[in-house]
Amino acid sequence: PPDVLVVGAGLAATRTVAALREHGYDGHVRVLGAEGLAPYDRPPLSKHLLDRTGPAWLADEIDADLTALADDVRLAEPARALRPAPGGATVVTDGAEHSAACVVLATGAAAVRPAGWEARTLHTAHDAAGLRALLGSGPRRLVLVGAGWIGAEVAGVAAAAGHDVSVVEAADAPLAGPLGVEVGGLTRPWYAAAGVRLLTGAPVADVRPDAVTLADGRVLPADVVLAAVGARPATAWLGDALPLHQGRLRVDDGYRVLGPGGPLPGLLAVGDVAVRRSARYGWVPGGHWDAALRGPDVLVRHLLGVPTDPATGDDLVPYVFSTQLGHDLALLGLPSPGDEPTVLRDPGGAGFSVLWSRPDGTTTAALAADRPRDVGAARRLLAPPALPRIDPGDATSLAALRR
Ligand code: FAD
């Protein structure tokens, strides 16, 4: 069988190597990583920033031993360039060139730090260790820029540990990007209840290690400033070797990298680095754990010609989870800005759920907040093959709905 070269040594890379072996591939597999660390899980970096240390967050849910599965694992040999070639591609590192018939790009993403901002970011185990050291010795004033998934998670754990926490957000609500202002705004009371100061509609003008200045002139003094304003696919090293769309690699339903004329032979991409074409959802960006966990199995099945299980299909339902400010969120599907949210509440019960519909009545996404039963219901409602049309009527939970 042809050689496989996996670039990246995170979740998507590990799952790719594991899936190759699970499906019986016995050819040569080489892995190139950049961090010099065995693969580890990122979600605990924010959720357990202050209550887990060192190797305790390594390999927590990456239940595969990369070195036992692959033939050649180089955890500190980052790819610097790629040259597509007939019959595969060559990846250039500082000391070597690696050619393979099949190259899987799984380099993930990197935290965004806007030009001129002097702030920490949180994306790697190294970032987390640095942040934890700063917050470890007594109460600090922590200013977080960005009330997205990661900002909200860090705000919650820092406030619970006794720090003085402020979150500044340019949009009019937390999580406005992924959920919209109306639904994102439902999480606003969580901040006050956790003792976190939340300023929305508050774009920043200047970010320094000891203060954040807002566009309206207000100054928030800080001991620690963390920028949590998103992540960008790690594709800079590719230069213009492959076509990028907003920095991402577009892939088809088998995770083959798409060029102008269709899939490029021998080139695949999965995880945060890729944006996947979905029959139901359009272009689905990476950036979430579940896609890096489950995408590789689909990739490998397409690569090796292993038939698809009709029960699950190849078109995975996008899934994001988050534990923030003491609350659990699960988002299934992909709401678009034009979709109409319906909020489902039970006056006597905990939490809430949301169902999004397109103007034609097609259901695109469901959110469950502090409602474990509704997470399962959302999975059932959005199961493949087609997007359902669900009229929420006066239901108070997703569990009460049928597709
Ligand atoms: P990564 O895990 O980032 O792995 C990519 C690897 O490639 C990295 O180790 C990187 O160093 C390496 N690499 C980069 N460039 C090169 C190169 N040129 N050569 C070789 N190697 C390279 N998602 C959720 O759904 N829920 C959550 O609650 C959640 N929490 C998160 C909390 C934090 C703090 C962070 C940072 C992310 C969180 N995520 C969460 C997102 C989730 O962790 C990612 O979607 C997932 O890690 C993506 O896996 P990946 O393998 O594509 O990328």
Work out the helix count: 10
Q: Report, as a whole number of angstroms, the end-to-end distance.
A: 44 Å
Write down how many β-strands occur, each being a DSSP E stretch of 2 or more residues. Answer: 26
Write the CATH homologous superfamily of the largest domain: FAD/NAD(P)-binding domain
Low-confidence runs (pLDDT<50, min 5 residues)? none
Averaging pLDDT over every residue, what do you get? 95
Ligand roster: flavin-adenine dinucleotide
| Domain module count | 3
> Which CATH class of the largest domain?
Alpha Beta
Radius of gyration: 22 Å
What overall geometry do the principal axes of the alpha carbons give?
globular
- Major sheet size, sense and barrel closure: 6 strands, mixed
Order of strands in the sheet with the most strands?
3-2-1-7-19-18
CATH T-level fold name of the largest domain: FAD/NAD(P)-binding domain
Proportion in helices: 10-25%
Percentage of residues in DSSP E strands: 25-35%
* CATH architectural group of the largest domain: 3-Layer(bba) Sandwich
Draw up the topology in text:
Blueprint: E1 4-7, H1 11-22, E2 29-32, H2 43-47, H3 66-69, E3 72-74, E4 81-85, E5 88-92, E6 97-100, E7 102-105, E8 109-111, H4 125-135, E9 141-145, H5 149-160, E10 164-168, H6 176-179, H7 181-184, H8 188-193, E11 197-199, E12 204-208, E13 211-214, E14 219-221, E15 224-227, E16 231-233, E17 249-251, E18 256-259, E19 262-269, E20 274-278, E21 282-285, H9 289-304, E22 319-324, E23 327-333, E24 340-344, E25 352-357, E26 363-369, H10 372-381
Parallel strand pairs: 1-2, 1-7, 2-3, 7-19, 9-10, 9-15, 10-11, 17-20
Antiparallel strand pairs: 4-5, 5-6, 8-16, 12-13, 13-14, 18-19, 20-21, 22-23, 23-26, 24-25, 25-26
Helix pairs in contact: 1-9
The structure holds flavin-adenine dinucleotide.
